[in-house]
Amino acid sequence: xxxxxxxxxxxxxxxxxxxxxxxxxxxxxxxxxxxxxxxxxxxxxxxxxxxxxxxxxxxxxxxxxxxxxxxxxxxxxxxxxxxxxxxxxxxxxxxxxxxxxxxxxxxxxxxxxxxxxxxxxxxxxxxxxxxxxxxxxxxxxxxxxxxxxxxxxxxxxxxxxxxxxxxxxxxxxxxxxxxxxxxxxxxxx
Length: 189
Ligand code: SF4
What we know:
With 189 residues, this protein is an alpha/beta fold.
């Protein structure tokens, strides 16, 4: 067992960091991804999660509900029929949320780009994409590389300035002040 007697004088066992860094560290090391696939790229995504590549090594585990997922990996061909469903699932995810476009179909329509009237020419037409992974299909190593890039991106965020202070500004905005200053109707006596 570790000797913690030195902690009596206040040294050791204390980590000092900015809140931004702590939040980013927590978020970047546990980006749970939404478990769904659209076509053949999804098989590679499943292989990446399986024992040989083991995505849980980098804190990524699949979730079956959009409410519990942080990352949507669009793995496969997005048909016109599925596009609005993909958008709806994205909207059901809680903020902050991220999207990875896996493979050439999700990124640009892939082999269906020219003649596939039924295929969306890039999932970024319906949801914002953070990382694009090329390939048909991308190998598991490519997906892992894309996920590591996403982790780097999360580490660069400023959650306190971008969300907390923005929410506070909205709360104390002019409109809110005006609406609170408006006298409520006094019932006639
Ligand atoms: S990019 Fe290739 S492997 Fe991936 S869904 Fe399209 S056709 Fe299939």
